[in-house]
Amino acid sequence: MAVHEIKHPLIQHKIGLMRESSISSKDFRELASEVGNLLTYEATRELPTETAEIKGWSGDTLSVQQIKGKKITVVPILRAGLGMLDGVLQLIPNAKISVVGLYRDEETLEPVPYFDKVVKDIDIRTALIVDPMLATGGTLIATIDLLKQKGCEQIMGLFLVAAPEGIEAVQNAHPDVEIFTASIDERLNEQGYILPGLGDAGDKIFGTR
Ligand SMILES: O=P(O)(O)OC[C@H]1O[C@H](OP(=O)(O)OP(=O)(O)O)[C@H](O)[C@@H]1O
Ligand SMILES: O=c1cc[nH]c(=O)[nH]1
Ligand SMILES: [Mg+2]
C-alpha cells in the first residue's frame, strides 16, 4: 500500500494551526476544508488524461486534455469527514458523493456502522474516502470492507492526521488502498487518540466538545 505524507509548506502550516489547543470551531472547520482541498490536489496528480477535440473560441478545432476513464465518488465518513468535503468538492465539483456513517465505540474503540448510502455505479468509480483522523484504523478498514462488498475496486483515502498504528493495520487488511495524509504523527494514547494529533476532530468541527 502506498502511503503519502504530503510535506507541502501550505499543508504543514495549516496543520500546525489546527494543533493549537484554543482553536475555534470556525477556524478548525475552515482549515479542515482547506487541507482537504490541498490533499485532493496531491491525490489526483496521477489521474490519467486523454485527448479530446473541441471547438475553440476562434472556430478552430483544438486538442485538449480531459480526465480519462473512471469517475470519482467522494466518500465522507460521518461525522468528521463532512468537515473536509467542501474543500474536496471545490476541485472535483462533478463527483458523486457516497456517505457512510460509523462512530468509534469509546470503550472498545471498535467502529460501529450506522448509515450508508453509496452511489449505484460504485463498481466503475474510484472512491476517495475523506476523514480527518486515521487512528487505530478500525473505521477505515470497516469503510473499505463496505465499499469493496458493494463492488468498488479502486480506493484512495485522504486524512489530515494518521497514526502509525492505524496505517499498519490498514496496510495489512487492504494493501491495495492508497493513503494521503498531511501528517504521520507519533502514536496513539491509551484512549486511542492520536498524539500530538488534533484532539477529537468531530467535536471540534461540530462544536460538540
Ligand atoms: O481509526 P479509528 O480508531 O477507527 O478512529 C478514527 C475515527 O474516529 C473519529 O470518528 P468518531 O468515532 O469520533 O466519530 P465522529 O466523526 O462522529 O466524531 C474519526 O473521525 C474517524 O472516523
Ligand atoms: O485522535 C483522534 C482519534 C480518533 N478520533 C479523533 O477525532 N481524534
Ligand atoms: Mg469524534
TrEMBL record:
This is Uracil phosphoribosyltransferase. It catalyses: UMP + diphosphate = 5-phospho-alpha-D-ribose 1-diphosphate + uracil. The lineage of its organism: Bacteria, Pseudomonadati, Pseudomonadota, Gammaproteobacteria, Alteromonadales. GO terms for molecular function: GTP binding; magnesium ion binding; uracil phosphoribosyltransferase activity. InterPro entries: PRTase-like (IPR029057), PRTase_dom (IPR000836), Upp_B (IPR034332), UPRT (IPR005765), UPRTase/APRTase (IPR050054). Residues 7-208 form the Phosphoribosyltransferase domain. Uracil binds at I194, G199, D200, A201. Belongs to the UPRTase family. The keyword Signal does not apply. Binds 1 Mg(2+) ion per subunit. The magnesium is bound as Mg-PRPP. Catalyzes the conversion of uracil and 5-phospho-alpha-D-ribose 1-diphosphate (PRPP) to UMP and diphosphate. GO terms for biological process: UMP salvage; uracil salvage. It comes from Alteromonas confluentis. Pfam families: UPRTase. Its cofactor is Mg(2+). It is an enzyme of class 2 (transferase). 5-phospho-alpha-D-ribose 1-diphosphate binds at R79, R104, D131, P132, M133, L134, A135, T136, G137, G138, T139, D200. Its EC number is 2.4.2.9.
